[in-house]
Amino acid sequence: MLAYSIRRIFEALIVMITVAALAFVLFRFVGDPVNQLVGQDATLAERNLIRQQLGLDDPMPVQFGRFLWKAAHFDFGMSYQVKQPVTAVFASRFPATFELALTAALFATLIGIPMGVYTGIHRDSWVSKVFLTISLIGISLPTFLIGILLIWVFSTLLGWLPSFGRGEVVDLGIWKTGFLTRDGWAHLVLPAITLGLFQLTLITRLVRSQMLEVLRADYIKFARARGLSDRAINFGHALKNTLIPVITVIGLQVGAIIAFALITEFVFQWPGMGLLFLQSVQNADIPVMSAYLFLVAFLFVAINFIVDLLYVWVDPRIRILGTST
Amino acid sequence: MSPPVLSVRNLRVEFPTRRGTLVAVDDVSFDIGPGEVLGVVGESGAGKSMTGTAVIGLLEPPGRIASGEVWLQGERIDRLPPEKMRRVRGRRIGMVFQDPLTSLNPLYQIGEQLIETIRTHTDASPAVARKRAIGLLEAAGIQGAARRIDSYPHEFSGGMRQRVVIALALAAEPDLIIADEPTTALDVSIQAQIIDLLKTLCRDRGAAIMLITHDMGVIAETADRVAVMYAGRIAEIGPVRDVVQRPQHPYTKGLMGSIPTLEMGGTRLTQIPGSMPRLTAIPTGCAFNPRCNAAFDRCRVERPDPMQTGTGAVACWLAARAADEADPANQMHPTRMAP
Questions:
Q1: Residue B107 and residue A316: Cβ atoms within 8 Å?
Q2: What is the ipTM of this complex?
Q3: How close B92 gets to chain A, by Cα (Å)?
Q4: pLDDT digits (tens, 9 = 90+) for A28-41
Q5: Residue (of B53, B75, B91) closest to B168 by Cα position
Q6: Cβ neighbours for A214, distance < 8 A, ≥ 6 positions apart
Q7: Which fold has domain A86-324?
Q8: Domains of chain A, residue spans
Q9: Which of A96, A254, B175, B315: disulfide with B306, CB 3.0–4.6 Å?
Q10: Which residues from B are below 8 Å from A when comparing CB atoms?
């Protein structure tokens, strides 16, 4: 188990260093950063001075090493745009994205798994067919369109729910949360559904196909021959055997939800990291962009690591593999 | 003779398909007495497994019992509502499948699966069920059962897993065990042990066995009576010694001739020409007639039903003709087997 974890952590480090290299190269691609820092009429001497101060005249490996060292301490420099440390900017935006992503992920999982199990067991019932039709819509409509449709129906036509922003938030010191107010929840509903709908349909279809597969397995037939109840067979024996791929996909999707919440955040003007990223792209705010890249990669790596540990928890056979190799 | 544990009467299993109805099991009747081992033998697709699956009520839709009756200790079970039939499974009829590697759920310890089965059918407390589970594993020949009960299936070898499967099938002390090719997936060296174990455990508990296999050797050593199936029907049924030593049906004769023995030396094994017909193309008359070297006109037109022949029954016009010639006064007519 320990060897397994250490190997996984080692692999994660390699991924992070690769991503850091990409984030670092980003600075090179958009031209000389000094141009963005000084006025048009700065002299060559002034430019060289700044270049020296920022260490931009050091050899490339030295600069990369410094970048890595700072990134490992969550120091990504100053934002060109808002003239604040990038880390502070992200810290103020992260809670919004996190709460949105968490709600969307829970919505997708808690509804998607039961729907998948139901459509897997009652393959031919009309309820299953309705679920599958809905999921087809969810999988084929682009996110922004779903968002706009929801706003049109529930905000414009019916006027039930607000269409933009986070609403009233409670400041808990380092974390501003919308979970504690009615208004916060009302603002959360539409974006969370928009963001989670694709994942919901993905999970439903995945669980369904896995259930269909597992229900044909010999041990299910044997469980029936032992006279176990349908409930014990479907949920105890079948569902647990479908979980490995389902956990993988949910894990990756949680990463995707956080990383790619930008469209939803843009549609609903949700003050999270995605919106921040879009603004930084418009303003060529490189430190923010590279930090975002770094952060998203970190999230994926961290989630994958947790998923790997969950495998071991679900499937005892992986425990053996992990210790013997 | 005591009343049979299982009595199957004119069982017919059908699969409705788009291109017509396939008959997988046709007019099959047999009894199994208490503590008796009935071997059911035949080629793949002869309907052996389908018969077993129909008895325990696990036919996969669209397969269904079209007609016939299944009686378990005087109670008719083929028309039971699903929930009642579920309680028959495991509790009164246990089943062992072919492949022990896939019969156990890989994600649960074998103890959990045993305790689950015991507690489904009895109101034993978890502690009592666990004690009983250890006892079952010991009886099934698992060394150090008290320790091994918390192991996962993948930590056992194939033979050991089949022992666990047998322990599971016997967990609620059923009256009948249906063993569907229980040794086919195992090493030859282990097959005899497993068959032996199955037989001993069932004898100790007074359970009857329906042993489905294509291995005549296993049948000859294990079964009390044997039913030979061909194309969904019983070709011949009777005490194992009679069927093995004096087979009456040409198909049974062919089966026996295809078993190598030590005495045969260099002579070639006989083989039955052709192969068993598909369910979509069962010939008229006797299903075996295209492969039978003794077939005559009647065989191609009229389908023989099993006819009593002293100790057993055989579905063959040759046997009927032989009986007629021996005693023309007492003409033998197709009869249903005596219950």
A1: yes
A2: 0.83
A3: 10
A4: 676 666 776 677 77
A5: B91
A6: A220, A238, A241, A242
A7: MetI-like fold (1.10.3720)
A8: 2-72, 86-324
A9: B315
A10: 56, 58, 86-91, 94-95, 97, 99, 102-108, 116-117, 120-121, 152, 154-155, 165, 168-169, 171-172
